[in-house]
Amino acid sequence: MTETNTPRRFVLVGAGGIGTWLADGLSRLLEWKFPGSALILVDGDNYEPKNMERQNFSKMGNKASVKALELTQVFNKTLFIPIPKWVVDDSFNGVTDEDSPKIKASELLMEDDVVFAVVDNFAARKILFDAASKIDNIDVFTGGNDDGLFGSVYHYQRRNGVNITDHPVETHPEYQSPPDKNPGELSCQERAEIDGGTQLLATNMAVAALILGRVHKTIVNKQNPEESEIYFDLGLGKSEPYNRMTHQTTTVNN
Amino acid sequence: MINQSNSNQTQSASGVANVRFGVYSQPTPVAGKSVKEVREQFGKLWGIPTDAIAYKGKDKLDENYIIQPNDNLEFHRRAGEKG
């Protein structure tokens, strides 16, 4: 008999190059390890033909809505909820209309959520990390890649109001002052002008696989998130874990 | 910011510390050297940007900090951005 766990609420923000592959993996994990769970998909953007080289979807339309419908047709023990909106922070006071619907991160995230911030910019990730830092029990996984074969993932975990792993701002200045902008706070014209670069399918999938692996270890198996951050380079064939736990002993690895 | 430039400690390297940057991690005899010297030693080899912040845990290190045996010296590697 397969052991099952209490249903969970997973929140995936960004259903693009990493998010589409991760959504498929998370759906299978929830369906068999946490039946009766919910996967909430959040994205204000639309699938376009140019996305097909790297992203896994079957028709054009809003990314969250299309992916949620696809998954609903395959998995019957998991509830898929699309939120076709851009995530913004509490101080956002720009335009919110039918063409550019928004949701505040503080209204999206809840206690005991497992969050996946797989957007394409640091600014939106920071909004999610900052909102999570005000919740007592939460896990936030993020991952991203450069153009080419380099990528990294990070796991921020809080329990009983205490950071188990550090907020990534502790060792990443890019989360203190993001060099990019949250697409949710741009106009439609500005968003259309964002260059997706020359990302590779293999790197997007590797980020998704590493995050799924961290979920299996720390959420399914409930083990410590010692390998809180992992850098990898598919070209070099290397990966390297970093311990970002708040309380740790540092030693030289010989 | 840790700034420790005691001249008594600026001796030849005599102990091992771990030097890290992204996917690179190497125990190496750099104790006694400054952050600046280690950056010069590994910068070209690993592609460490000249402005990459050096950390020991969460503490930012000054360029003149002298590496101690068993230190974990990490040069900041920007996280993957896109997705």
Gross geometry of chain B: globular
Structural class, from secondary structure content of chain B?
alpha+beta
Average pLDDT confidence of chain B is 90
Give the number of DSSP strands of chain A. 13
Q: Give unreliable regions of chain A as ranges.
A: 249-254
Give the ordered list of helices and strands of chain A: EHEEEHEEEHEHEEEHHEE
Separation of termini of chain B?
A: 33 Å
**Silhouette of chain A:** globular
Q: Give a count of the beta strands of chain B, DSSP E runs of length 2 or more.
A: 5
Sheet with most strands: strand arrangement of chain B: 2-1-5-3-4
Topology record:
The complex is a heterodimer of chains A (254) and B (83).
Chain A: E1 9-13, H1 19-33, E2 38-42, E3 46-47, E4 61-62, H2 63-72, E5 79-83, E6 86-88, E7 102-104, H3 105-108, E8 114-117, H4 122-132, E9 138-145, E10 150-159, E11 162-163, H5 188-192, H6 201-220, E12 229-233, E13 238-242
Parallel strand pairs in A: 1-2, 1-8, 2-5, 6-7, 8-9
Antiparallel strand pairs in A: 3-4, 9-10, 10-11, 10-12, 12-13
Helix pairs in contact in A: 1-6
Chain B: E1 17-21, E2 24-28, H1 35-46, E3 54-56, E4 59-61, E5 72-75
Parallel strand pairs in B: 1-5
Antiparallel strand pairs in B: 1-2, 3-4, 3-5
Question: Can you give a write-up of this model?
Answer:
The complex is a heterodimer of chains A (254) and B (83). Chain A is α/β, with parallel strands linked by helices and 254 residues long. Chain A is built from 6 helices and 13 strands. In chain A, the strands form 3 sheets. In chain A, strands 1, 2, 5, 8, 9, 10, 11, 12 and 13 form a 9-stranded mixed beta sheet that branches. In chain A, helix 1 packs parallel to helix 6 (201-220). The relative contact order of chain A is 0.15. Chain B has 83 residues and is an alpha+beta fold. Chain B has one helix spanning 35-46; strands at residues 17-21, 24-28, 54-56, 59-61, 72-75. A 5-stranded mixed beta sheet of chain B has the order 2-1-5-3-4, covered by helices on one side. In chain B, strand 1 and strand 2 form a beta hairpin. Chain B is globular. The chains are: A alpha/beta (254), B alpha+beta (83). Chain A binds chain B through residues 14, 16-19, 118-122, 142-147, 150-154, 166, 168, 170-174, 180, 196-197, 199, 204, 207, 229, 231-233, 236, 238-240, 242, 250-254, and chain B through 16-18, 20, 22-25, 27, 53, 55, 57-58, 70-72, 74, 76-83.
